[in-house]
Structures are given as structure tokens and as C-alpha cells.
User: Fold these one by one.
Assistant:
Number 1:
Amino acid sequence: MDIEEGGITVSVPEARDGASEGTGGGVFFNPTQELNRDVTVATLRAYREREPRAASYLDAMAASGVRGVRAAAEGYDITCADVDADAVDLAAANLDANGLDGEAVHRDVNALLYDEGPFDVVDLDPYGTPIPFADAAFANGRNLICVTATDTAPLCGAHLQSGIRKYGAVPRNTDYHPEMGLRTLVSALVRTAARYDKAARPILSHVSRHYARTYLELESGARAADDCLEALGHVDGCEDCLWRSPTRGRIADPVDACPECGSDRVLTAGPIWLGPVADPDFARAVRREVTDDMGEAKRARKLLGTVAREIDTPTHYDQHRLYKQWGEPAIGMDEFVERLRAAGHEASRAHYRGTAVKSTASIPEMREAVLGTDAD
Ligand SMILES: C[S@@+](CC[C@H](N)C(=O)[O-])C[C@H]1O[C@@H](n2cnc3c(N)ncnc32)[C@H](O)[C@@H]1O
């Protein structure tokens, strides 16, 4: 069937249960990833202003080619790659049908990157973890690496051993799992880039539905890579009172007991990325590039606006859980954030959950700020 997305028309297989599967069910297409693709296109537009030399775009896992076709329509010099021959034929036909130039190649993207790289922008959009493709992408990417990861259970510590194996980090299953997942992913990608003497800094990231997406800008040089690694660290967190303590530095020095409530239920996660996951100015620039021909324009603008305003903390608190702990009825989120700010604390909402609040205040400070009474 034909679908319209962001001003282009592409032929895609019939979707079953939201997404068509690559194996046995034809070429993969997931209509619910339109938000991801709309944000990608807006990012490619904004990135051109930031780095005018960026011209080539590798849609490394093209499937129907919808992402690459949309990038071609933006003027990028695109290559669509896939190991599925049907996908390559479909991507080529979709480029053709839209009158756009570009290549569709039947290649394993790891081999392609080493044989044909470098590419200015490399977009990894695999099934599950991107890690099998990360070395080739960072070794052969020049400016921007865009990465989707859908294996949220390993990333956020719900499947601990799998997370440790794939990401070379200890992710913990905390109640701030969107941050945990995203920062475990970025940690692994930053360490991968460092192997090639490159700094990889996230300039935009979001956690939406069941995936994390991050855009990492590259800077070549051993010193830049070293500086970037300084933003890795670990977080100690108490499962009982929700106390959390992020510490930068590569060597974890975990605590045995919570300094706030004395509980020994303290979990240490790391190395995770403790630096910024987005550049607020770039997020605003991307937001300005969202256009009304995008099917998810409304959600994309809301998401990017919240990302731009989000404060830079590696954890968040769930407002309902805080009020439960305090034994008080919850107030509205905007009012909650306002009261924290009025008391002099940095505070914001988070883009991934309506009840998530980010703040530099400790829990006793938050309680004081919003209830006007200190913790017992
Ligand atoms: C999730 S789909 C990509 C969806 C697509 N980017 C979109 O926006 O609709 C993953 C694709 O990766 C392809 N793939 C898996 N391993 C690959 C490899 N080593 N090299 C190139 N493509 C690969 C699969 O055949 C599948 O088409």
C-alpha cells in the first residue's frame, strides 16, 4: 500500500499489529515510528545549519527506505542499505517513485561502512540493540551518528545480564528507567567512539514509547575523546527513600548504606553518561524545523519543547511516588514544578512521562518547597 509521510509517498507492506516484520512477513515498516522519523527530518534540517558541510547520509537499515527517501527530499546525498534484498528493491523503487536521486544497496552495513565510508551522517535503526553496528558507524562516521535502540529492558536494567553483556555497564532497574536506559546507551556509544579517538556528544535525545533515540555529534581527536569520557560516572540510589547521588569519574566507589535513611537497599549503576543528553539551543532549532506536513508535528513540537526546557539531571522523580511517600494528595505537575522553582531550586518536567519531575533539590528540600514542612 502507499502511504504519505512528510510530503513524500512511499510504498510499504501492509502493517500487522502496528508493524510488519522483516522475516517471513515482507519488508519491515512500523507506522508508529513516524514521530521518530519526523524528528529525524527536523534534525537533519537543523543540522545543516550547524554543520553546512554535512552532505552524505547513510540510512544504514533502510527497510522500505522511508527514512532515506525523506532525507533525500531534504537534499542529502543518500545511501539506503539493507541485508534484505526485497527491502533494497523497495527502497530503490520508492526513491524512483519520488523522483529522487540516491543509492539503494544490498549490503551488510558493517562491511559497507568500512568499504565505502566515511559518511557524514550515519543513521542506525536496527531491530533491538544498535551495538553490533556501533564500531563500524563511529569508525566511519564523520559528523553525526543517529541511533535508535528498542531493547529497553536490557538498557534500563530489567534484563540485567543482557544489559551488562551488550552495553559493558551495569544498568539498574530503578523508577527512573527512561534516564537509566538512555544514559546506558549513550555511555556505550561514547566509549565506542573513544576507541577511534573521537568524542561523541549527544546534541538531542528522546525516549518515546518503547525506544530511545539519540543524535551524537562527533569531534575527532584523542583529547576530545578523553574529555568526553570524563562525563561518565555512576549513580548510587536508595530503593527505599529514593535518595540518589550521581558521581562523575570512571571508577565507581559505591556506598553500602543510604546516607539519608540508613537502608542497605542501595543500587549502584554505571558507567552511565552523566553529561547533557541534549543541547537546548539545538533542540529549539530542531523544533523550529518541524513543519505542518509532518503527521506527528504536534507531538514532535511538544516533545522538542519539553526536551529544550529539561534540566540536565541524570535521574528524575515520579511525583506520585513522592506524594505517596509523604502521605499527601498530589498537586498538579505545573504547580509542583513552580513551587520548586519559587524555592530557588532548578526544576522541570521530563519529556517521557507526565508525572516525571527533574530537580537538583534533594527529597527533603522538595518536600519543604512544596509542602512547606521539612521531612521528619
Ligand atoms: C527496524 S528495521 C528499519 C526500519 C527503517 N529504518 C524505518 O525507518 O522504517 C531494521 C532493518 O535492518 C535490516 N538489517 C538488519 N541487519 C542488517 C545489517 N547487518 N546490515 C544492513 N541492514 C540490516 C533489516 O533487514 C531491517 O530491514
Number 2:
Amino acid sequence: METLLVIEDDPGIQKQLKWCLADYDVVFAANRQEAITALRRYEPKVVTLDLGLPPDPTNASEGLQTLKEILDLCPNTKVIVITGNDDKDNALKAIELGAHDFYQKPIDDEILSVIIARAFVITNLESENIRLRQSSLDSHGFIGNSPQIQHVCRMVDRIAACEISTLILGESGTGKEVLARAIHDRSPRHDKPFVAINCASIPEHLLESELFGFEKGAFTGAHKTTIGKIEHANGGTLFLDEIGDMPYPLQAKILRFLQEKVIERVGGRQEIPVDVKIICATHQNLQQMMTEKTFREDLFFRISEITIDNPPLRERGEDIVLLARFFLHLANQQTQHKINGFTDEAIAALCQYHWPGNIRELQNKIKSAAIMADGKVISEFDLALTSVDASAQEKMPLNLRQIRDAAEKQAISKALTMTDGNISRAANLLGVTRPTLYTLIEKFSLNADAPSSTTQ
Ligand SMILES: Nc1ncnc2c1ncn2[C@@H]1O[C@H](COP(=O)(O)OP(=O)(O)OP(=O)(O)O)[C@@H](O)[C@H]1O
């Protein structure tokens, strides 16, 4: 049964509505505070709101304020405002503020029921639409639910529908190529090629012929005419990854191709028309490169008609766990291990970690943890994240012994904390004898004399 929130201070009308809205789970609220509490608790998709609420039921200001707060908290809620029979001005004001519909008193049960039922149909259709959009993104291997990534998804939808050059910015491993593919797959060009080239991975002297192709005899070794990546992408999408690494002299040639939509193969004289949607990506600071004159300003403006900032994983909150579960599912398919999930500590460790390598690093960590896990769940130890925090990465410890010592010290402290300083139980947890543990405590100058500790 759907939940309907009715914000109404008149007990008589409450009674009437309860009777005529028996098809719903009706929750009543008599003032703004109660309404917001009920909204948080029941998350109703549809709300009816009498604009005349206490403390001054003759004035609509409290009702309009309630409407604003509801839509601030839950923008997708369908609010049907109920006004006095000659209060059109406030009804229109409410619609301007985002109310779904209005209804003027006196209340006719049948008409109001139809308006409410229609609001439920619309809100359910909208949710279904969002779900379908989300699942079609999922089918492109694109996982994410955080508000940041939902914003990126909306941009992907819009960019896919039009011809606009797109620059995707983001740290390494944040999924820039995945985004570029999602744009292509959702564009009218989806049945034409998607061609990706990483400008940083191809030696400078080869990049030009790789991109533009070459005519037979253009240089030693050019035995036959070969078409380049740009021509391969004709009709589809060209993804220039790490555009910041494009050699300066080649930038001019790329700019000409983008402006005139023609290319010349290396060693050729003929202009060949090419029609591609262009998407570029970089983890570099192009603004700074332009100041340093290592990246052309005119090329920057040509490739960045719109810019997507792909957020780093550490800023994507809930997505970390969502992605971790997704990668665990993949790892289970690839290995014989069938891991059910993560311990609470493992989840906490995943959320706290800095993820310098972003989604790529998360994927690798989950895969190796799934292989290493002894039981049916992945523990924080399987993830091996604790010692690899951001500061530790910057400075390499002196040698292996120092690394081992640090790990031992950390494990002993943890065991002592977990057992409240109980030496016997800590020794059991660590798999060593009590004398060995005493020796180690002394070696690392650990404090085993916490007030609650009971050495047995
Ligand atoms: N939203 C996502 N859902 C699922 N997997 C993802 C997502 N984003 C990225 N990945 C995975 O993370 C890995 C890195 O993604 P990708 O290569 O697109 O990152 P990138 O930002 O282009 O990296 P680089 O800058 O190093 O080229 C890939 O294995 C990709 O499949």
C-alpha cells in the first residue's frame, strides 16, 4: 500500500479524508513540524497540504513555508496543495514554488481521490524512468549512485544527444574512458566505431602517423598506405585520452582537423573529410600548461565546449561500497572462491582509505582480497589497506625490517585494544605465547598497563 501524507490541522477534515482515502496508508500531520518529521520517517511520494496551517490558519504563509521545506528535502515529492475556495493567488504561488497540483475547498472526495491517484501514477512513472536510465548506464559497466555521479550521468545523457566537444577531467583511474564510452553508447553514433587513443602511451614520433595515417613511401618502413585512428573513427567517436601529453607541434595539426573536419595522411596531399564526435580526457592541469605555453589555448577552447569533472573515488561516498560489491561479484565469477561479502571493519576500511589509484585501485584490491580471503567474507586484513595510507605512500620506509616492525607493532596494539589489555587473549589472537608477547611489548615500548588490563 502506498503511503500518503496528509497535512491538515482540522480534525473533521482529517476524519473525512481517512475514510475516503482508505486505499492508502494515510499518515496525518497537523503542523509544519509534524509534517517534516513524518516526511523524514515515511518518505511519502505524494503529500496533500492544506495551505492554512497553524499558528495562523487564515494566512497561507506557514503552508507555503512547509511546501518549500518539503521540496528542499525531497524535491521529487508530489505535493497537492489544498486552498480555500477563493484563494487562487496562493494556489498559483504554490505551483510556482514547485507544487504538483492544487485543489480548492470544499473537498469533494471523489475528485481529490482522482488527483491523488494520478499523482501516484506520475511519481511511479518518474521513478521507473530514473531506474531504467540507471540500469542502462549499468549495462555499460557504469556503477554509481552518489549525487556527484548522478550529476555526471545527467551530463552524459545531455552530451550524448548533441554534437559538442567534451573534455573529461579527473584523476587517473576515475573512469574517464568509461564515461567517454557511455557518451558514445548513448549517442546517435552508437552503431559506429568508438576509437580510443592514449596520447601518453605512444612515442612522440609515431603519434602523428597513428592518428592521421600515412601514405605508402611517406617514410622508411611505410610499405603500404595505412589509415589512422581518426579515419577509423569516421561517423563515430574519437576519444583522445591524456590530451595533455599531445606534443606541442602536433597540437596545431589536431586543431586544424577539429576546425576544418579534414585530415591529410602523413606524406599525403589529399584532404580527406572526417566526421567524428570528439571527446578528450586528461588528469593534467591544462590551465597551468597554457600558462607555461605547453598546451595551446586555441586547442583548449576547441576541445572543451563542455567539461565534465569526474570526481575522485574518495569523494564519492556510498559509491565506494557499491563498486566494491560489484567488483566482488566480478571476482567471484573469475575465481573459484565464492565470497559472500565484507566484514563491517572491511567496509569501514574501504570508506576511510584515500584511494589514490581510484576505481582501478579498488578493483585490484577487491580482486586480490577475494583470492586471499580464508573464509566466506573479506576482512580488513584481506584488503591490506591500513599501511598504505596517503602519507605512507609518499615516503618509502628504510627497509623491509622497518616495514615488518611497523606492521607487528600495529597488530600488537590492535590485539591489546581488542582484548582490553588482556595479555593471554591478545597472545592467542596473535598466535604467539605470552612470554613472546611480553618480549614484543617491551621491544616496541608498548603500554600494556592500561587501567583495565588484567595480566593473567
Ligand atoms: N563507474 C564505474 N563503474 C564500474 N567500473 C568502473 C567505473 N569507472 C571506472 N571503472 C573501472 O575502473 C577502471 C579504470 O577506469 P578508466 O580506465 O575509465 O579510468 P581513467 O580515468 O580513464 O584512467 P586513466 O586516466 O589512468 O586512463 C576500469 O577497469 C573501469 O572498468
